């Protein structure tokens, strides 16, 4: 059951869907995992993603952040790989 909207899915189908979304994130504008029901546009909550997948949550958070940065026209990643800001 997704906590954002309450729709119920087979765990394996939902995990496959989430992992597919995660895998394509680097080529898209943003990581937006929504409910599978066409008429429901609820976003999957991060706690759902963390609980349902074996995807490294750090990598998921990083991909989400990078997608956010790509959407922001006035923000760029620092070119220094040692930079912590």
From TrEMBL:
One of its GO terms (molecular function) is zinc ion binding. It comes from the Eukaryota. InterPro entries: Znf_RING/FYVE/PHD (IPR013083), Znf_RING_CS (IPR017907). Keywords: Metal-binding, Zinc, Zinc-finger. This is RING-type domain-containing protein. It comes from Didymodactylos carnosus.
């Amino acid at each position: 059951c997704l906590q954002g909207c309450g729709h119920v899915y087979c765990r394996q189908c939902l995990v496959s869907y989430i992992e597919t979304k995660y895998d394509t994130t680097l080529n898209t504008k943003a990581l937006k995992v929504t409910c599978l029901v066409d008429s429901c546009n609820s976003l999957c909550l991060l706690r759902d993603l963390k609980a349902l997948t074996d995807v490294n949550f750090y990598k998921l958070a990083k991909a989400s952040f990078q997608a956010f940065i790509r959407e922001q026209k006035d923000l760029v990643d620092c070119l220094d790989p040692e930079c912590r800001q």
